[in-house]
Amino acid sequence: MHPIISRYREELVFLLLFLTVSVSLSYYLLAQYRVLGKAVFPLDDAWIHLNFARNIAESNEFAFNSGHPIASSTAPLWTLLLGITHKVIPNLDLVAYLWGAACLVLTAFASYKVTYFMSESRIWSLITGFFVAANPWLAWAALSGMEITLSAFLILLSIYFFLIYGENRGWKRFIGIAIAALSMLTRPELCILVLVLLVLDIRREISGRKGRRSLIKLLSISLVIIIFVNAPYSLFALSSCGQLFPCTYNAKVGGLGLLGVLGKGDLSAIVEYLTTEPFAYWGQFIRAFWNFESIFFLLWLPSLLFLLLFFLRRKDERLLVFPAFFFLFTLIMGLFIPKSRFGFPWNRYLQNLLPLFIISSLLGFYYLIAGSKRASWRYALIALIALALLTASGNQWGYAIPYVRDFYVDCGYTMRKRHFKIAQWLNENVGSGEIIAVSDIGYIGYTTRRFLVDTEGLITPGILGETRDGLEKDALIYQYLQEAGVTYLATFKAAYPGLPRERMEIVFDADPMAVYRMLWGED
Fold first, then answer.
1. 244-265 b/e with 16+ CB inside 10 Å = b?
2. Burial, 284: exposed, middle or buried (Cβ in 10 Å; 0-12, 13-18, 19+)?
3. What is the pLDDT of residue 2?
4. What is the dihedral of CA 345, 349, 350, 354, to 10 degrees?
5. Residue 430 zone, left/alpha/beta (φ > 0; ψ -120 to 50; rest)
6. What confidence score (pLDDT) does residue 515 get?
7. How many CB atoms are closer than 10 A to CB 219?
8. ∠ Cα 18 21 27 (to 5°)
9. Whether the Cβ atoms of residue 453 and residue 460 lie closer than 8 Å to each other
10. Which are the contacts of 393, defined by CB distance < 8 A and separation ≥ 6?
11. Kindly report the CA angle at 6 between 3 and 12, in degrees rounded to 5?
12. Which of 179, 266, 281, 378 has the fewest beta carbons under 10 Å from its own?
């Protein structure tokens, strides 16, 4: 190896991954620009973050409706990052694109570092990093204006520091837990990652026979770190939403899942939920990752099994990280997240796990190859993995990349057709003093800069009560809209079938959405 390459190989790897991400993202942005004439975020959720970020930059308040602070973001770290950066860079769309792209580069490099620490194979690690950097769904995530790639990066960073400082007896052993606690501010369900690292740390203490005092110290410091990182936002949620979780959690999950069943006190329903829901979630989890990466999926389950078998042989806790995380994640999420909320929209709530999925799909086979004593077996396994990777590459270039490209363009087109037109109509036809209710608050709120009532309860916590579905929910929404004096409602025409359409007049049609004028005088 050339001495310059040997000296700067980490920097060269980073540069290669940076170029891969740059080419990938440029491909999707240019495809959208050719069709729409501009770059457009694919989901309305991105504009919710941007609206909060703009208020952070302009008035130093964490609020969607200016002057009304509220904990409505399940990714406050991402929202704050955008808002603080917006104080320096005036174009907020550009800020979101830059951070999404930067976090994807860092995620790819972190994938390389984690794999190298576990395998000590630069080729194996570089292949892993490349597949993360070139992954079409992660490119979609980086350009979505949402927190997905930041969350993915923090997941890998926490695992990396947990692995390299696992045997450290000083403060460095808590870096992994601290970063995992921070990742909860990008996705609250990553409390499961915190739990996994803490359980493995406890197991390490017990197996090493460090004593009760050492175990108590570990638990105490870890608990203090977790509370210190997450308490400020939880207290903010308590003061603004009346609960320790952000309004978004209550709007999407509150009253459902295992907690909802327990609240009803129906023993038979509890037993049924415990015995069916985790398996239902597992099935949807499997389908999601099959759709994301079918070739890697075929490697994933056997690879996790190999990691578990090598752990039993070597007693190396590092090998447990990936099987333990995926097992506990699917079990706990299956219990607490209802099926109806699993994949909305387009399984994006699992995209931050894709790098971890790719890494774990390959690592178990590396240990199997490295541990094979017979050269013939080793060469056969290498040929098998090489064939799988070539097939995965062909699948990406031949199917996944064009599919995600068209999907990304179509999402932007849909946003433009629906939300853009409604926002423009409201700006031109509705006075600033009118109260507007909206089901998709992001772009409409960002563009109109009006005070909005949110029919989904993300920024209007009192609108739903404990009901999430059915005609009872619609009745609560209707009552709230009337009491709040809402004059216009912008939503999908098929939404809220329990609302009395005879008391709502369509004044602007942006099929499948519409703007209704509420006819309260006829009640």
1. ebbbbbbbbbbbbbbebbeeee
2. middle
3. 46
4. 100
5. beta
6. 94
7. 14
8. 140
9. yes
10. none
11. 120
12. 266
- CA 295, CA 396: separation in Å to the nearest integer? 10
Both structure tokens of 93: 């769309």
The size of the chain, in residues, is 523
Amino acid at 66: S
pLDDT at 398: 63
Mean pLDDT of the chain: 85
Ranges of residues in the chain whose predicted pLDDT is under 50: 2, 344-345, 523
**Which residues are paired to 506 by β-bridges?**
516
E-state strands within 10-132: none
Q: How far apart are alpha carbons 80 and 365 in whole angstroms?
A: 40
Contact 81, 57 (CB under 8 A): no
pLDDT at site 78: 97
Question: Which pairing describes strands 436-438 and 452-454: parallel, antiparallel, or unpaired?
Answer: parallel
Other CB atoms within 10 A of residue 364 CB: 24
Through-space distance between the first and last CA atoms of the chain, rounded to whole angstroms: 82
Nearest CA-CA partner of 482 in 445, 507, 453: 453
Measured distance CA(473)–CA(125) in Å, rounded: 50
Would you call 434 helix, strand, or coil by DSSP?
coil
HSE (side-chain half, CA atoms, 13 Å) at 8? 8
DSSP string, 114-143: HHHHHH--HHHHHHHHHHHHT-HHHHHHHT
Q: From CA 377, how far away is CA 64, in angstroms rounded?
A: 59
432 neighbors 482 (Cβ within 8 angstroms): no
- Tokens at 226, concatenated: 């977790």
Q: At 340, list the tokens.
A: 């109806």
Instruction: Note the pLDDT of residue 256.
Output: 66
Q: Is the pTM of this model over 0.85?
A: yes
Residue 75 in contact with residue 448, Cβ under 8 Å?
no
CA distance 86 to 106: 21
- Tokens representing 294 are 């079918």
Whether the CB-CB separation of 126 and 135 falls below 8 Å is answered with: no
Alpha-carbon distance 297 to 500, whole Å?
Answer: 47
- DSSP 8-class letter at 504: E
Q: What is the gyration radius of the CA atoms in the chain, in angstroms?
A: 25
pLDDT, tens digit (0-9, with 9 covering 90-100), for 286-311: 888 887 777 888 889 889 998 998 88
The predicted pLDDT at position 522 comes to 53
Q: Tell me how far the alpha carbon of residue 294 is from its chain's centroid.
A: 20
Q: Which helix (H) or strand (E) is 78 found in, with range?
A: helix 76-86
Q: How far apart are CA 456 and CA 323, in angstroms?
A: 36
